[in-house]
């Protein structure tokens, strides 16, 4: 799978946002995104979350000073940021220059970044990740559980408020395409096997840092398996119910992997007892509507936050948005397409 698989929504679709045309008042959900929310121990001032985004700018696996600036620019008092996917162990990856959190050097570099985010009074979670999408042997799986545990410990030592375990996009959940044939002859996926690795990791991480600091990211309609939609719904509900047993803080859904599919997260929202974050192609209007309707508690924004460091403020003012430059998502200098997207204030100063 290539990097482009993150691109979940067609370019034209987000172009619509740039005009910010629709009026939330008329739609009856005036800026629900801007209302406070108590997420476990964290009092959030608004519901606009920075989604985790790989930017391939961590030379040698170590986050650089530019990364500090990137997150600092996107921090607002009481805002929640989830940092980019961060390796729990050295591993081959299709992505170059992704950060890790397994060495002292990496942890030290993250410490400075976390401090910069906290200085702006934002809440910061690390998305901890193993980059292999495959079925692991028994011993590999045991080792991975330990690596996640240690990564979570390192993240907390570096000052992060918590970790988000990356189980979306075909990571951790659902590699084992095992099916069993019931008495009626109908095949069903063996949910226990599909989630086993992920749940062992959750258990260890919760044991290490406490459930109130743990989130789980999951794309129920992932394209990395050959499950049917009905299987994916069953699997997602099973996973949500199992996550409840560990009393984790939140579940972060990535709704859309294929726009042609029915991508309702309602069954998982109903099954999961903690905070629900959702993401995938949300506009300001869409986010307000989703919060107002109770579909989710928080909305994570990827591309719009990438190109608008002051996204919460722009939403508040219903101001026009900077367009993102797809060409610099994963490459470019440490400035271009990374830390040089202007804020509204900077734009005013330039004009
Ligand atoms: C450049 C880029 C990098 C991404 N990297 C990650 C990642 O590291 N981990 C992850 O879980 N999702 C990743 N995603 C998915 C985003 O978190 C988000 O769910 C997705 O972009 C949909 O939200 P959006 O429509 O608001 O952009 C990435 C997306 C983009 C655009």
Report on the architecture of this protein.
By secondary structure, the chain is an alpha/beta fold. The chain has a single domain (3-350), classed as Aldolase class I (TIM Barrel, Alpha-Beta Barrel). Helices cover 36% and strands 16% of the residues. The chain contains 12 helices and 12 strands. The strands form 3 sheets. The chain has an 8-stranded parallel β-sheet. It has a two-stranded antiparallel sheet with strand order 1-2. Strands 7-8 form a two-stranded antiparallel sheet. The longest helix has 20 residues, at 138-157. The site of flavin mononucleotide (FMN) has 23 residues, from strand 4 and helix 10. Flavin mononucleotide is lined by residues 6, 8-9, 51-54, 84-85, 127, 166, 168, 217, 254, 279-282, 301-304, 329.
Compile the SSE list and pairings.
Layout: H1 11-15, H2 24-27, E1 37-39, E2 42-44, E3 48-50, H3 65-73, E4 80-87, H4 104-119, E5 123-129, H5 138-157, E6 162-167, E7 179-181, E8 187-189, H6 191-209, E9 214-218, H7 229-245, E10 250-254, H8 266-271, E11 275-279, H9 284-293, E12 298-301, H10 303-307, H11 311-317, H12 344-350
Parallel strand pairs: 3-12, 4-5, 5-6, 6-9, 9-10, 10-11, 11-12
Antiparallel strand pairs: 1-2, 7-8
Instruction: Specify the overall morphology.
Output: globular
Number of strands: 12
Q: Which runs of at least 5 residues are low in confidence (pLDDT < 50)?
A: 1-22
The percent range for helix content is 25-40%
Rg over CA atoms, rounded to whole Å, is 19 Å
- Look at the helices and sheets and give the structural class: alpha/beta
Instruction: Measure the end-to-end span.
Output: 42 Å
What is the helix/strand order? HHEEEHEHEHEEEHEHEHEHEHHH
Query: In order across it, which strands form the biggest sheet?
Result: 3-12-11-10-9-6-5-4
Bound molecules: flavin mononucleotide
Number of DSSP helical runs: 12
> Strand-residue fraction?
15-25%
Please state the second-level CATH architecture.
Alpha-Beta Barrel
InterPro entries: Aldolase_TIM, OxRdtase_FMN_N, Oye-like
GO molecular function, one term: FMN binding
Keywords: Flavoprotein, FMN
Protein name: 12-oxo-phytodienoate reductase
